[in-house]
Structure formats: C-alpha cells, structure tokens
Amino acid sequence: MVRFLGLPEVASAHGVSIDRFISYVHWLMILLFVGWLMYFVYVLWRFQQRRQPRPDPAGARSHVSTYAEIGVATVEGLLLIFLAVPIWAHVSEQFPAEEEATVVHVMAQQFNWNFRYAGPDGRLGRQDPRFVSETNLFGIDPADPAGRDDVTSLNEMHVPVGKPVIVHVSSKDVIHSFKIPSMRLTQDAIPGMRVPTHFTPTREGRYRIYCAQLCGNGHAAMAQGVLVVESPASFEQWLQSRSGGSVSYE
Amino acid sequence: MVQATTRSIEFPAREFHGPAHATGFWRTYVFSTDHKVIGIQYGLTALCFLLLGFFLILAMRWQIAHPGEPIPLVGWFLEKVLGSPASRGIMSPDLYNMFGAMHGTIMVFLAIVPLAVGAFGNYLVPLMIGANDMAFPRLNMISYQLYFLGGVVMLASFLIPGGAAQAGWTSYSPLATVIPTDGQTFWLIGMVLLITSSLLGSINIITTIVQLRAPGLTWMRLPFFVWAQLAASFLLLLAFPPLEAAGIMQLMDKVAGTSFFLPTGLAVGGATAQISGGGSPLLWQHLFWFLAHPEVYVLILPAMGIVAEVLANNIRKPLWGYRTMVYAVLTLSFLSFIVWAHHMYLTGMGTRISTFFQTTTIIISIPSVILLTCLLMSLWGGSIRIHTPMLFALAFLPMFGIGGLTGLPLGFAASDIQLHDTYYVIGHFHYVVAPGTIFALFAGIYHWFPKLTGRRMNEFWGRVHFWCSFLFMNAVFLPMFAQGFAGMLRRMADGGLSYSARISPGVEGTLSDFILGLNNYILWAAVGLGLAQLPFIINLFWSIWRGERVQGDNPWQATTLEWQTPTPPPHGNFLRLPQVYRGPYEYGRLDEDGDYLPQDRPPVAHTR
Amino acid sequence: MEIAYTVHARPDTGVYNAKLGMWLFLASEVMLFGGLFSAYVFLRVGAPPDTWPQGWLNVPLGTLNTLLLAASAVTTFLAWAACKARRLDQFKLHTGLTLLLGCIFLGIKGYEYHDKWTHYELRLKDGRIAEGHLVGPKSTAEAVVLKGRWVEDRRQLLDGRRSRGTWQELTIPRADIDRMQNYAPRHNTFLAIYYTMTGLHGLHVLGGVVVFAYLWGPGSRLWHVDPEHFTNRVEVAGLFWHFVDLVWIFLFPVLYLS
Ligand code: HEA
Ligand code: HEA
Ligand code: CUA
Ligand SMILES: [Cu+2]
User: Fold this and answer.
1) Domain A98-242 in CATH: superfamily?
2) What dihedral angle (degrees, nearest 10) is formed by the CA atoms of A66, A68, A71, A72?
3) Which of A178, B181, B298, C229 is the most buried (most CB within 10 A)?
C-alpha cells in the first residue's frame, strides 16, 4: 500500500509504524468510498425517472447505513486509541536519554539551516537570545567554556546510523518547518521556542531536508539542507574535522 | 397535534400595502434595502471575485509548471500593473506569494462565503420562511457595502508599492509582520471590514429566521437549507470576532511596533529586531484557526443546504432522516469550535493536547458522515429526475466524499506528520471547496435561476458546463494527492524544482520527474477548467433575456415557500402572508393533482 | 408591507427584532473580548521571567472609573424605566446623567493615557537607567529633563507600586542617552495589551455615548410618534451599555489589580 501511495522510501525506525498507519487509514477510506460509490451508481441507475416513474415516499427501510456509520466510528476510534495516540506519544514525548543519542540543535534562518553539535567535551555551550548576532546565530554565551569547542555546520547535518537522534528545533527569524520526508519527520521551527523531536535513522544515505512552512520569498529555494546518515566511524571523523577552532564567537 | 399547539399562539394580523413603490434607479439597484436586490448584488460581486481568484491561481499554476518563464498572454499586463514583482512578465517569488495569499483570501472571504451566505442566504432565506424581507433591511445594505469596501481595499493592495500581502491566507506572524511592505496592513484593514460585514449579515440572518418565520412554520418544518444558513450564521457570528481581535493585534504589531506575536530575541536579517519582544507566534495561530476551522464549515454547510433542497426536489420524495440531519448540523457546528488545533499538530504539541484535538476531529467527522449518508440514502426509492442542477448536486456527494475522507489522515496526528503542508492538504480541501462547494453553488444557481428571472438556463449548455467542469476539476485535483505523498510541498514559488531529483543526484526523498511532470498536466487541466466556465457565463447572461420562459410560478413543482409566490417575486415577496401547514418535503404522497404538497396549501379537510 | 415584530415582541420567542439582534451582537462581542482576554492570559503565562510589570496603573483612578460606570448602569436603567412610565423629562434627566458619567470616564481614561505617554524610560550609554515623566518645557536640544528617578536594575522598573515618593528632577544630556522610549504600546507586552484592550473598550464607551446623545437629542423625536418604539431603542442601547460596563468590570481587576 505504501509503495502504491508513492511515499518516499522510509529510513527511520518510527517511520515504519507511521507508514503502516497511513496505509490502514487509506484502506478504510478506500473501502468506504468504493462501497458508497457502488451504492451510488446502482441507485442512480435503478431509480432514474424512466425506471421508477413513481417515487416510493417511504424510502430506504434498511439499517445498513446505520451499521456502516457505527462501523466507521468504531474503526476510527480503534485507530485513534491503539495507533495514532501511541505513535504520537512516541514521537513527541518518549525521548531516548541524551547520553545515548546524537543531540543536534537546529536553527532555521531565512533561508538556511544551521546545525550545532557538542564538541569533544560532549557538552553544548549555554545559549541566550541576548547573544544572538550575525556571527553567533545560536546565541552561545561566549563566557561559557563548554561552548568553545561546539561544532556548527551550515545546511549539512551528519548523524550516525542506528543511533537515536534528538533534534532541538528553533528559528531565529520567522517560522520554518524542519521536514525530512524519508525520516517521517516534521517539526515547525518557531522563533522564541526550542522544540525537541527525535528519530532513529536506519539506513545510510543522503536525505533531503525540506522547509515546509512559508518563510518568505526564499521559501522554495530553502532546499540546500541535507541529512547525511553515515557509519559511526565516519561520523566521528566528520565531527573531529569540524571542531577545534573552526568556530568562534568573538 | 403539532398543528394544535402552533395555532394556539396568536399571531397578530398584518396588513399588506401592495408591491413595489416606484423608486429611482439608485434606490432600486444600488442602494436598495430589498433583500433580493442585495442578494443579487452579493452574487454578482462574488462571482467576479471567484473569477479573479481563479485567474490568480492560473498564473500561479503557470509558474509551478514552468518556473521562471514569462507568463504567456498576460505577462506584459501584469508587469504594467504590478511593477517590479512581475518584471519581464516573470512571476517572482514575491509575486507568487502575493497571489497565493490573495487567492486563498479572495476565494474564502470574498467569493465563496459571500456567494453562499450573502447571495443565497439573503435571497432565499426570507422567501423560504415566508417573510417579506430581512429583519434589518438597512443593516443588510450596509453589510453589502462593507463587503464591497473590504474587497476594494484588498484589490487596492495589489497596486501599492511592494504589492499585496505575501504571508499566505493564514498570515502567520512573525513573517506577516516582518515583510517590509504595507500589503499586510491593507489585508488586515480589509479583513476588519469583511468581518464587520459578515457580523452584520449573520445577525440579520439569525434574527430573520428566529423572528420572521411564517405562522405554522415550526423549527422542524424549516427547509434544511434554512437550518444550514442558521448554523453557518452562528459560526460566522461567534468565530469571526476572535480573528478580529487577532487582526487588531497584528495591526498593532505592524503599525504601532508592539510585539504581540513577536518573541524575544527575534533576529530578522542580520541584527536583532528593535522590538520589546515577549510575544508569541503561536498565539496568532490559535486565534487564526479558532476562526478558520469554523470558517470551513461556513463554506460547506450552505452548500449542503443547497444540495439537500435540489436533491429533495428532484427525487420527488422526502429527505431520509431530516431530523437526524438537523441534529447533525447542530452537533457539527458546536464541535467545530473545539478542533482548531488540528492545523497545529506540528508546532510541538504534547500527547495530551494532541489527543484531545485528534479525538474531537475524529468525532466531528461522524456528523459529516451522517449528513452524507442521509443524503445518499434519500436517493433510494426516489424517482430521480436528472437535469443540470441535479447533476451538480449529485456530483457534490462523491466529491465531498473524497475531500472529507482525505481529511481523516490529516486529522490523525501520526499521519499528519508526513502529510502536513504538502499538496495532499491542498488536494483535501479543494475537493471539499471546489468540486464540493462550487458545484453545490452551481446547482443552486441553475435551480433558482427561474425564480430570479422567470426563465430557465439552457439545458444543453448546462450539461456541457457540468461534464467539462467535472472532468477538469478531477484532473486538476486528483494528481495533487500523488504529489503530496511524494512530499511535494505547498507554497513553492518554483513548483518544487529546488527539491527535484534532477538537480541533486544521490539524495533521497527528492521529487521525481514524474511527480514534477504532473504540474504540467495540472496546468492544462486548470486551463480547461477555466474554458469550461465559458458556456456557463454566456448561458447565465444570455438566459436572463433570452432564456426559455417558465410556465407558472413553480416550474420545478417544489414544495417550499419560495416557489409559492410570483416568479420573480415582487417587492415584499408575498401577495398574502403564507400560513404553513406541513414539513418542507411532502413529495410523492398525494394521489390527486400532482405528486407534491406545498407547505402552505391548506389540508384538504380545511378547504372550504 | 411592514416588517413584523420591529416594535412588538413575537409571541413565541418573546422578543422584538432589535432586541434579539442586540443579544446576538453582544454574543459576538463576548467572543471579541474573550479573544483578547485569552490573548492576555496566554501572553502573561508565557511571558519570559522578569518581564511582566505590576502596579503600573493608577488604582484609585481605575476604581473611580469603575464606580462611574456602575453608576451609569443605574442611570441607564432608570432612563428606560422612565420611558416605560412614559416620562420623557425623567428620561432626559437620566440619560443626561449617563452621558455625563460616560464623558467623565473617557476624560479620566484620556488622562491616564497621557500620563503613560509622557512617562519615559531612558537607558544611558554607561548602562544607567532613568525613568520618569518628561518635563517638556524644560527639555532642550542638549538635555532631557525628567521628573523621575534612577534605578539600578531594569527589574526595579517592573514593580510600579514602590516607585512613587522620591522622584526628583533629573537633567540628562542627550549625548549620554542610548535609548529613550515612552510608555507607548510598543514599550512592552503589558502596555501593548493594556492600550489595545482599554482602547477598544474606550471606543465602545464612545459609541455608547454617541448613541445616547442621539437618543437624548434628535432621536427623541420618535417619542412623539411611537413611544413604544422609542422605549425599545432605549432598552437596546441600555443592553449595549450594560455590556460595556461589564467588560470594564473584568478589565479593571485584570489590568489594574493583578
Ligand atoms: C469546506 C471546507 C472543509 C471541510 C468540510 C473540511 C473537513 C475536514 N477537514 Fe479540512 N481543511 C480545510 C477545509 C475543510 N476541511 C482547509 C481549507 C484546510 C487547509 C487550511 C490551510 O492550511 O491553508 C484544511 C486542513 C485540514 C487539516 C490540517 C492539515 C494540515 O495542515 O496538516 C486537517 C487535520 O485534521 C483537516 C481535517 C478535516 C476533517 C477530519 C474533516 C471532516 O469534517 C471531514 C468529514 C467527512 C467525511 C469523513 C466524508 C464522509 C463521506 C462519505 C463516507 C461518503 C462518500 C460518498 C460517496 C462515495 C458518494 N483539514
Ligand atoms: C473556497 C476556497 C477556494 C476555492 C474555491 C479554490 C479554488 C481553486 N484553487 Fe485554491 N486555495 C484556497 C482556497 C480555494 N481555492 C486556499 C485557502 C489556498 C491556500 C492559500 C495559501 O497557501 O495561503 C489555496 C491554494 C491553492 C493552491 C496551492 C498554491 C500553493 O500552495 O502554492 C492551488 C494550486 O493549484 C490552488 C488551486 C485552485 C484551483 C485550480 C481552484 C479552482 O477550483 C477554481 C475554480 C474556479 C473557476 C474555474 C472560476 C469559475 C468562475 C465563474 C463561474 C465566474 C462566473 C463569473 C461571472 C458570471 C461574472 N489553490
Ligand atoms: Cu524556511 Cu520555508
Ligand atoms: Cu480544520
């Protein structure tokens, strides 16, 4: 079903359950639509004025439609309770421990993505909007030593495969939306808020990052972002190569 | 029994002064307080806006299919009128965003609502309930004038330097506030005018329905259309004011430098913005969607009302489950106030809140299913008379079905993660409003045209109009679901080209040539859709003067009151105030003269 | 043909048209102010720490205004009762009082606005902060004269209740000033919502005053033609006025006392 619908091939752990859910819902929709359509076409044929010159004012006496309504309500309720809510709870609240995950800060701006990782010390520097400037997008406190070795990167987000990734999404100007269709991930980037979300990439590869929220005249062109999922070794290598003096906030 | 209780209330007798007093051209056609004239004014103005909204989207569809290529035929004209955003006839991203925002705004607030509530509601409600006018005729005129003024302000905004609003019809802050042009200010002022207009309009319609029903016309004898108008008016009345409040606050942000919707630490461009901060971008979204969700039911309920009337008339039997439908509409209206945040799942919502809004969204789909089911079940046992109005009304059902059903995966937050802001959403709601509502409005226009003019619209060209529209509507909107699944986003000034597989080989999750190629098909389908309206427009105007005259006042053998008065109705509507004796759909029950019983025909036993 | 129930109530609904229309309008007004009040709550709850001021507004003046509106609620009621009793002179008297009370209310509101508008916060280049009222005539192109005080910390500004007392005249050279801003809506979120809500409410008061002035003056001609109709108009205007009072009853504690 998912293949038939044409979704991009899934590359994250929770994406599989989302796909399954999407296909269940669409089965339900197709069933309903085709069922009613068949009835509809039959009725139009059967009760045309030519074939039925005198109407039967009593109309339908069957209760099938009532059962159908109850059925729809029940199935929707089941989908909601057993799939939709648990999936959402997983995505929005059941976070892995920060130590066991790759933690990335995402800062959207017109019209680029900025990423920030903790450097070798494993700790991210303190942030405060007061420090935000052209050269210090994340507003990292220059006085905090933990921030000195932090790694930032423009439009290229690297993560190791198979390990949970926690992304803290924010924006410095207007609302953007951090969307990676292959990962079944979407999170609005809202200025003044930092919203965490998470996923676990399951396949190595390069994946397109989309900006899904109208953010100005460069919205369509805000398409340079790419998520690179690679082996833990190459990820470490990349992180090393970027850290150490490659950024400064002076 | 029912009759006895209604009769026990004394309705004082009212006298009648005879039809239309002679008045001048201005008072009769321009500054009229007659609900029928105002209804027609609303209708014509709204149709013009519908056409304009369509032209905007046609230009956008060109850009989507052929990004960066000059717009054929009208490019030079756009450049002349709009200046630099359209330089060399090419649609710049600014212009694209401008047209997109204005397409949404014009279609929703200046075309469909004024057509469905302003035109149909105004013209038909007093006639259907046996009243001689609206309760507040002068307010009615003012309401139209405010609407017109709001439209003028919106149109004028295209011509100011920098052009119209560019932040989508949703006008999310901070974007709406920080774009350094005055378009948004015009948009907000226009909206305040439109909101005031629909406020006056809805007060008028509700009061009219409550107060001016003819004697004997009890609540459960109201035609379903009147119920739909009543519910829609309540939605307008109660949902619009919070948007007005939000509009005032955004206006303050824009002109007085406040920070209602601007957070601390906003840095647009290089420097931190010189604002106090402390506001919240989400507050705007909450207030906007608190209006905009009920608003979508304002778009659909009158349409369902029209479909119910046309259907009942042409199946020649009562509607199945009339009472259920009434209760479903009331439930739907009530629930529509507590589902708004399903547009905001991905702003970072916790499980508890999202569960609440998912649940209400799923519950609200049930009354819609019930309404549709009742309409579909009504067909069983009918003697179905097929002509143009009926074709449009029938087509409404599966089209709304597609639109409504695709609302379900959006209503579940889990699937909305993937589908949010893609063309799937565009497909979803256009199926409801375009082949849904627009078809219902067409059905209404063909159905009540004889009432307005005493002439019928041409049947052959009506059918041409229907089949071509039906074909092209689906050709336009069906491929959008495929695009949405593939991840193509809405509001892309380059039609998704930047995300194409072509320009970034080796990257997954990009758009294939097939998906982007669909854009070209959609373009030509949209052109076809536009051409398919030509028979309609010509037919409409031609039939006003040249159409075939109808015999008698009641060409469709209808039961409801609007057909029990001269066609076209005189000033004051009724020669004698009607007395109602029965429900609205007494078809197929009588064995003598004809197969229907008008609501105001006295029962046989009572005739002397 | 006359439109039905413009003057007399419809038997089964028990109201005449204008009354129902006014109730509906007030329902929409409830949603309008409801939207603003929810915005207030949303913004206040979500405000970053140490940004929401307290006690900036003049409680005695606010209380006086509350009393004025409460009194005017009584006079509007009496005006309507006078109409019912067919006493035009009494109606004129009570409506006149209502008008007077409404105008005083607006006057006081205007004074409060003026007081805020001329209240400045000055940030100096060396980091010091001064606040106070601008003494316009004494200020020159070189220096600003404030009747106010120095504060060490911006947070001190937020508590308006302890800021009175030791204000003196400060003369500050313009060259030293980094930023100078009056207490206009843009100053902070509290002032923004304060001006917006009271401004909108003030417009409603103004609207009410205009309506009553009309009924008191030229509109009262209807009395001699159709006193019943006129009484209805008075009643409907009174409904509106009571709603405006009610909004203030909520605005006062929310803005002045919390
Ligand atoms: C008239 C307009 C209208 C109507 C009626 C609806 C109806 C519904 N809508 Fe839709 N919606 C919009 C207009 C409308 N919507 C618009 C304009 C937007 C986008 C705004 C924007 O972002 O710009 C939107 C967006 C939107 C979203 C946000 C998506 C996103 O941004 O990610 C959601 C999510 O829950 C949603 C859900 C629903 C649901 C559950 C219904 C339900 O009420 C539907 C219930 C109906 C059914 C379930 C159909 C039942 C019928 C049958 C079973 C019969 C079939 C018949 C035959 C075959 C003959 N809608
Ligand atoms: C009621 C609402 C409504 C209606 C009816 C329509 C109708 C149509 N819409 Fe619209 N649309 C919106 C509301 C509506 N839309 C909204 C809210 C958005 C989101 C905006 C945003 O992003 O902020 C949107 C966005 C939108 C997009 C996405 C743009 C983007 O994201 O970049 C597209 C793309 O194809 C589109 C296409 C169409 C088409 C082809 C029609 C067609 O169905 C139009 C059919 C109409 C006609 C063919 C005209 C018929 C004319 C007559 C009959 C006139 C007769 C005249 C006289 C007699 C004088 N619309
Ligand atoms: Cu950033 Cu769209
Ligand atoms: Cu909605």
Assistant:
1) Cupredoxins -  blue copper proteins (2.60.40.420)
2) -110
3) B298
> Residue B473 has which token pair?
């509507």
User: Does B278 contact C27 at a Cβ distance shorter than 8 Å?
Assistant: no
Are the Cβ atoms of A186 and B346 closer than 8 angstroms? yes
pTM: 0.93
C111 and C201 fall within a common domain: yes
Q: Is B543 helix (H, G, I), strand (E, B) or coil?
A: helix
Q: Are B309 and B223 in contact (CB under 8 A)?
A: yes
Mean pLDDT calculated for residue range B79-84 = 84
* Total number of domains in chain C: 2
Contact yes or no for B124/B563 (Cβ under 8 A): no
Question: Which tokens go with A88?
Answer: 């959402």
Residue A130's identity, in one-letter code, is R
Express each pLDDT in B397-430 by its tens digit.
999 999 999 999 999 999 999 999 999 999 999 9
**Structural domain containing residue C103:** 21-115+187-257
Structure letter (DSSP) for residue B489: B
Structure tokens at B499: 């995300």
Q: Structurally, what CATH architecture does the domain formed by A2-92 represent?
A: Orthogonal Bundle (1.10)
Strand order in the sheet with A176-180: A185-189, A176-180, A210-211
Q: At B244, which amino acid appears?
A: E
Nearest Cα neighbor of A88 from B53, B590, B342, C185 is B342
Tell me, using a 6 A CB cutoff, whether residue A222 lines ligand 3.
yes
Structure tokens at C206: 């103004």
Residue B285 has what pLDDT? 95
pLDDT higher at B593 or C156? C156
Q: Whose CA is nearest to atom 13 of ligand 1?
A: B429
Residue ranges of chain A whose pLDDT lies below 50 = 245-250
Chain B nearest CA to A67, separation (Å): 11
Q: Residue C172: which CATH number?
A: 2.30.30
Chain segment B497-509, per-residue pLDDT in tens: 999 988 888 898 8
C197 in the same domain as C177: no
Mean pLDDT computed over every residue of chain B: 89
pLDDT digits (tens, 9 = 90+) for A198-240: 999 999 999 999 999 999 999 999 999 999 999 999 998 888 8
In a domain, C235, yes or no: yes
Are C22 and B135 in contact by the 8 Å Cβ rule? The answer is no
